Amino acid sequence: MNILDKIVARKKEEVAAAQEMVSVKELKYYRHYNEQVPLFTEHLLAENSTGIISEFKRKSPSKGDINGKAVVDDIIPGYAAAGVSGISILTDHDFFGGCNEDLTRGRELCKLPIIRKEFIIDPYQVYEAKAIGASAILLIGAILDKTLALELAALANALGMQVLFEIHDENELELLNSYVQMVGINNRNLKTFEVDLEQSMRLAAQLPEEMIPIAESGIGSVDDYLKLKNAGFKGFLMGEYFMKQSDPAGACLEFSQEVKQRTTKSV
């Protein structure tokens, strides 16, 4: 089994256990379930938006501990103050060190749109995302078929959430559907976890015009950001670059300021 297979196998166990603990009916009584959430598309396309989606994660299968003792309260307000367009929060525990409470706390700490970064394979997880305060869900093409992708994306929209659909190659383009607002092109191969920054460049031109292109993984400099921006990307999901610093929020602010300085000069 590769890493992705292991994660999905574990996720099936987690979903079954979660449904035993809390039913969908009970999720609908969570305090965030009926709240209107900010939309990613509005923030990404806003005038003067950097498009940066800063991520909160403690570890990953490819890197091990990145910032193992990180606390949401110490980082999310700083991300917001840095002027990012949105937040991504990992809720997977076993492989990424996250939890649902991280996202709920993030929702309480800022008014930005938040993506639930999770390996979603079941409608239950979409209801759960709504209940904990997510503005959008991540769907990963590598672990879904066309029918399930459509079901999950449609449900997310029906619940007032948007969809970031992650693809890795041309074969996954056929999984996209009309309920997807954003397409994340992952520079990291999820089966080997190796980074290929050029992956985004190769796939971006093939996306439907109505979907917002988001570059994911492997953005390690403002030069990388500008290269992808010039290729038409509107969003830039950055996690490890910030989280590996002793002060992730400070690193985010510094990066954002340099982006604004250099983009202003180029206008």
Automatic annotation (TrEMBL):
<dbReference type="Pfam" id="PF00218">
    <property type="entry name" value="IGPS"/>
</dbReference>
<dbReference type="InterPro" id="IPR001468">
    <property type="entry name" value="Indole-3-GlycerolPSynthase_CS"/>
</dbReference>
<dbReference type="InterPro" id="IPR011060">
    <property type="entry name" value="RibuloseP-bd_barrel"/>
</dbReference>
<dbReference type="GO" id="GO:0004640">
    <property type="term" value="F:phosphoribosylanthranilate isomerase activity"/>
</dbReference>
<keyword id="KW-0822">Tryptophan biosynthesis</keyword>
<protein>
    <recommendedName>
        <fullName>indole-3-glycerol-phosphate synthase</fullName>
        <ecNumber>4.1.1.48</ecNumber>
    </recommendedName>
</protein>
<feature type="domain" description="Indole-3-glycerol phosphate synthase">
    <location>
        <begin position="4"/>
        <end position="249"/>
    </location>
</feature>
<keyword id="KW-0057">Aromatic amino acid biosynthesis</keyword>
<keyword id="KW-0456">Lyase</keyword>
<keyword id="KW-0028">Amino-acid biosynthesis</keyword>
<dbReference type="GO" id="GO:0004425">
    <property type="term" value="F:indole-3-glycerol-phosphate synthase activity"/>
</dbReference>
<keyword id="KW-0210">Decarboxylase</keyword>
<dbReference type="InterPro" id="IPR013798">
    <property type="entry name" value="Indole-3-glycerol_P_synth_dom"/>
</dbReference>
<dbReference type="GO" id="GO:0000162">
    <property type="term" value="P:L-tryptophan biosynthetic process"/>
</dbReference>
<dbReference type="InterPro" id="IPR013785">
    <property type="entry name" value="Aldolase_TIM"/>
</dbReference>
<comment type="pathway">
    <text>Amino-acid biosynthesis; L-tryptophan biosynthesis; L-tryptophan from chorismate: step 4/5.</text>
</comment>
<dbReference type="InterPro" id="IPR045186">
    <property type="entry name" value="Indole-3-glycerol_P_synth"/>
</dbReference>
